Amino acid sequence: MTSFVDIASLDDIPRQGARVVRTSAGCIAVFRTMDDRVFALEDRCPHKGGPLSEGIVHGDRVTCPLHNWAFDMNSGQAQGADKGHVRTYPIRVENGRVLISAELIARRAA
Amino acid sequence: MKRKLVVIGAGMASGRMLEQLFELDPDAYEVTLFNGEPRGNYNRLMLSPVLSGEKTYEDIVTHGDDWYAAHGVDCRFGEPVVRIDREKRVVHSNRSSAEYDALVIATGSAPFIIPVVGKELPGVVTYRDLEDTNAMIEAGVAGKDAVVIGGGLLGLEAAAGMAARGASVTVIHLMGHLMERQLDPAAGYLLQRDLEKRGITVHCKGATKAIIGHGHAEAVLLEDGTVYPADLVCMAVGIRPETRIAVDAHLEVERGITVDDALRTSDPHIFALGECVEHRQQLFGLVAPLYDQAKVLARTLLGQEAGFQPVQTATKLKVTGCDLFSAGDFAEGEGREDIVFRDPGRGIYKRLVLENDRIIGVVMYGDTNDGSWFYGLMKDQTDISEMRDTLIFGPAFQGGAQPDPMAAVAALPPEAEICGCNGVCKGTIVQAVQNGATTLEAVRATTKASGSCGTCTGLVQQVMAFTLGGALVEAPSGMCKCTDHTHEDVRRLIRSMGLKSIPAVMQELGWKSVGGCHSCRPALNYYLLAEYPLEYSDDRQSRFVNERNHANIQKDGTYSVVPRMWGGVTTPAELRAIADAAEKYDVPMVKVTGGQRIDLLGVRKEDLPHMWADLNAAGLVSGHAYSKGLRTVKTCVGNEFCRFGTQDSTGLGIRLEKLLWGSWTPHKVKLGVSGCPRNCAEATCKDVGVICVDSGYNISVAGAAGMELKETEHLASTPSEDEAVEIITAFVQLYREHAKYLDRPYKWVAKVGLDWVKERVVDDLDNRRALVERFEISQSVYRRDPWAEHSTPAETPRWAPLADLTLEAAE
Ligand code: SRM
Ligand SMILES: Cc1cc2nc3c(=O)[nH]c(=O)nc-3n(C[C@H](O)[C@H](O)[C@H](O)COP(=O)(O)OP(=O)(O)OC[C@H]3O[C@@H](n4cnc5c(N)ncnc54)[C@H](O)[C@@H]3O)c2cc1C
Ligand code: SF4
Ligand code: FES
């Protein structure tokens, strides 16, 4: 079972926006949707490494700021004609706090 | 012998439980009932009709004195229980005590009070019981100012009730739209519109800072500085389970009193139900599940097997004329699909969320007749694949009403302007069609509508089709996959329908998606801020990264920082500040741009606000090198130094840049001012170029030197610098008001024609002045340095990572 660590208050992340969490596995983008769901994705677009955390969030999709690839944040899968996948991490909200998978603390840089 | 049952709290849940208990076995228990309120059980839900005047308190009493007498209940009303002695099995109020064999805690919940200054002033109430209701009735009857803090179910019922009684009511809501837990933005918009129609002011994204008053509430102050007068303030921001006596008795309490499926607490003699309990991590705020609990607890108390199983409940708002329905989970998600139906003309919005061919969420506004049908399908997990295509039209549909693509146009008043070029309104077109102009050519010939730039062709066709009662001949392609309306039509409709928010546009123009996409959202944000500079507040999350972060993103995710150098002129002190910043933040490259200023490339995001603060301290502001807005005004040295110079081109350039900076435009805008026709500032390939000559200023526009190379075209000549500035400002404003998002001026001028532009900014003096005035109004909001706004102590931390787990790993 995944164990979780508390990283921030939900209010620290803007609705339809994201903040970055630095981990030894690289930067993780933590998104918050209009309806207060959160997603954690690797902050690197598979196309040319764009920071997805800076993309426009629409519904449960995010569009990369560099060349407009769009990703489903549930699966990390690129949408439409583009092919690619971004890694996702377990994350959840409890009592207004954002909790992320504890494996992100433990892991050494690969 | 009868066993002794003590019940704490005479509310909705315990009332129903006692009914069930007496029905199943009238002789099992002798009941003692304590209640904090000085009365027995009434229908709390119906306080809203009492508030609005549709009912009286007497109408809503559910258990009168004779009912309690008939069932031998020992009533101790107005006696809150203050202590439970679990060892001796006795409860105590301040006046009396009672022994129990079984104890039921049903204390409901307590309104949440936000901890602001002035919260304890007289005139500040919550909305929970009859006392609160009477206080609000009093406010309404006297025609006072009332403020409701909280735009959820309770707050809105309070607001509507007081408004119905004649109070002038303002609702302050922290979130972006009303009832955000039950509604999505589109439904929230419709609800707000309906409340505003009945005179209620709604202030979303409003954080209360303090309640002001001497000895009594007088006004509410918000964080953004707004003040609303208030003789009465109702706080309806939420509830939390009333668990104090349970905590004191050391029962197990999480957020609520923990109960098992049989509604037993951690003490086998003590039970609990209602809003005060927590069951499998879930709290309750609506009565339907509480009634289920009541049934279960009655059985448990009689030693029968029973288990509580929570089901999803639906929400309705009891405000006459605001028809909404919401149930289930309407978040988007993997494998989930939306079916959206919008009927802008009738103000209807319906959305179903599907997963695995089952309905898992419903949001409806305007027409909720089918709510319970959808709710039934959802509860029973009915497979809807067979009826998927017509599902949204409800059970009655078999070839019934289809959404009307022309609803938005149909709803326009006759005086709404359709063709901006020729000033033709809807009524004129309708009349022309009725008089026999049934082809586009004929309409153009008789009314001139769409005869110039042609961008309103789509709308003209819609007006024709709607008048003729037929379908569209050929639909022009929409601005993105979310809508069939073109950019130009959306702009016009925003204006003629008075749409002032993104959800309003999406609802009224029948957007096909739930929340837009990365292509339409920035455009809508621009159109709205250009149309309503004072009322609309910029939506940062609808902007592309560069404009959101006020810097240009680089291919590696770092940013470039370009301070403004007015007219390309700088000072040693500014250069020193730039050099210092470059060193302090390890900037990998310092480059002179093609726009006569200096670019610091490769800055880390978290350093941006710090660097800005340093640059601000030296008097440097953002150069907006990232914006669809004013970029640079290139100048040459002019008559101050150059032997050929005819006018002060540097001075004019600086003047123009100081006037125009900060403004948002459909695409970027660049200017050049050269001191003589040698044109060292390359003014003739800019969006606006000025060539100074002995006799004055030659203004030309619509040039470009990017993907297309285009020389400017002559707009006007004038001997006066002031007039030159006025004409240029008017040109920029006309462009701001009419161009399609992401059209540079040269593309827009090509569509509307230079003559049309000339007429408005050169020939028609009144119109020119009006344009300048509107530009100034917009600049009163936007002529501000965004760097200063984002490098405050409150904002700066938001630019850094949310957390750094690499540090934790090392510790
Ligand atoms: C920094 C600069 C190049 C330089 O090192 O000199 C530059 C850099 C960029 N230009 Fe430019 N342009 C720069 C002057 C120009 C000029 C010359 C000028 O302004 O006199 C032009 C041609 C003139 C014109 O605009 O008509 C120019 C025409 C473009 C275009 C094409 C525009 C068009 O309508 O065709 C783009 C693309 C766009 O905006 O969509 C563009 C876009 C860009 C972007 C913003 C690309 C992007 O979207 O990320 C570049 C950002 C680089 C970065 O990482 O910071 N840049 N760009 C110049 C900044 C000027 C300034 O001080 O603000
Ligand atoms: C204005 C209004 C409108 C509403 N509209 C709806 C609606 O449309 N639909 C819906 O489903 N729900 C609605 N609700 C919510 C619904 O009323 C509650 O869910 C329900 O009343 C909760 O029942 P309860 O028995 O748990 O608590 P309550 O009905 O609040 O009863 C608790 C009682 O316990 C008493 N008490 C507390 N502490 C003590 C103590 N220490 N000793 C003795 N007595 C104590 C209180 O005085 C109170 O009388 C509305 C609520 C309000 C206020
Ligand atoms: S020309 Fe402009 S957009 Fe192209 S690489 Fe150079 S800076 Fe970037
Ligand atoms: S790097 Fe993301 S789309 Fe190119």
From TrEMBL, chain A:
Keywords: Oxidoreductase. This is Nitrite reductase small subunit NirD. The gene is nirD. Residues 5-100 form the Rieske domain. It holds the Pfam family Rieske. The keyword NADP does not apply. It comes from the Bacteria. The keyword Oxidoreductase applies. InterPro entries: Rieske-like_NirD, Rieske_2Fe-2S. It comes from Paracoccus marinaquae.
From TrEMBL, chain B:
Its cofactor is FAD; [2Fe-2S] cluster. Belongs to the nitrite and sulfite reductase 4Fe-4S domain family. Pfam families: Fer2_BFD (PF04324), NIR_SIR (PF01077), NIR_SIR_ferr (PF03460), Pyr_redox_2 (PF07992), Rubredoxin_C (PF18267). Residues 314-381 form the NADH-rubredoxin oxidoreductase C-terminal domain. This is Nitrite reductase large subunit NirB. Keywords: 2Fe-2S, 4Fe-4S, FAD, Flavoprotein, Heme, Iron, Iron-sulfur, Metal-binding, Nitrate assimilation, Oxidoreductase. It comes from Paracoccus marinaquae. Residues 554-618 form the Nitrite/Sulfite reductase ferredoxin-like domain. InterPro entries: BFD-like_2Fe2S-bd_dom, FAD/NAD-binding_dom, NasD-like, NiRdtase/SiRdtase_haem-b_fer, Nitri_red_NirB, Nitrite_Rdtase_lsu, NO2/SO3_Rdtase_4Fe4S_dom, NO2/SO3_Rdtase_FeS/sirohaem_BS. Residues 628-766 form the Nitrite/sulphite reductase 4Fe-4S domain. Residues 418-465, 479-528 form the BFD-like [2Fe-2S]-binding domain. Residues 4-279 form the FAD/NAD(P)-binding domain. CDD domains: NirB_Fer2_BFD-like_1, NirB_Fer2_BFD-like_2.
